[in-house]
């Protein structure tokens, strides 16, 4: 796993894995930081959009927003513990029953926010 410049030990548990970005950017940490900053700014907006759609029983909108966030998950190496993204993919767009997927969304959101917090602390917080 790619370790940020602020991590004191590679054994420190983090909720992300930047191996994909490391493979793409190599040792160009400034370029990778630009991408990370963009994801830290945009991902919460996408999470909020998914949540609002689910709360309003707009399953088609939630499915579309979930599809857009898949790239962020892959780039940041964040695990979807309840497989929310897959569940949304399978959920019928015309089915307004969001009880099961809402539970999975909450697990997903929690893990995603942990990963983003870890990235922010490791790359952008002054220590």
Short description:
With 127 residues, the protein is an all-alpha fold. The protein has helices at residues 19-25, 29-55, 59-76, 84-90, 99-124.
Order of helices and strands: HHHHH
The share of residues in extended strands comes to under 5%
Radius of gyration, in Å, reads 16 Å
| Global geometry | elongated
Low-confidence stretches at least 5 residues in length (pLDDT < 50)? 1-11
Class from secondary-structure proportions: mainly alpha
Describe the 3D structure:
Helix content is about 65%, strand content about 0%. It is built from five helices and no strands. α2 (about 30-55) packs antiparallel against α3, α2 (about 30-55) packs antiparallel against α5 (about 100-125) and α4 (about 85-90) runs antiparallel to α5 (about 100-125).
Outline the fold blueprint:
Elements: H1 19-25, H2 29-55, H3 59-76, H4 84-90, H5 99-124
List keywords for this structure.
single chain, 127 residues, mainly alpha, 5 helices, disordered N terminus
């Amino acid at each position: 796993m790619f370790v940020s410049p602020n991590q004191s030990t590679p054994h420190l548990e983090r909720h992300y894995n930047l191996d994909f970005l490391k493979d793409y950017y190599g040792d160009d940490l400034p370029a990778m930081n630009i991408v990370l900053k963009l994801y830290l700014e945009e991902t919460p907006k996408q999470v909020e959009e998914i949540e609002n759609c689910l709360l309003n029983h707009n399953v088609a909108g939630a499915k579309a927003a979930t599809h857009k966030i898949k790239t962020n998950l892959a780039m940041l190496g964040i695990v979807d513990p309840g497989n929310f993204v897959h569940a949304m993919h399978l959920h019928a767009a015309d089915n307004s029953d969001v009880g099961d997927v809402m539970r999975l969304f909450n697990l997903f959101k929690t893990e995603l926010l942990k990963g983003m917090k870890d990235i922010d602390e490791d790359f952008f917080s002054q220590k």
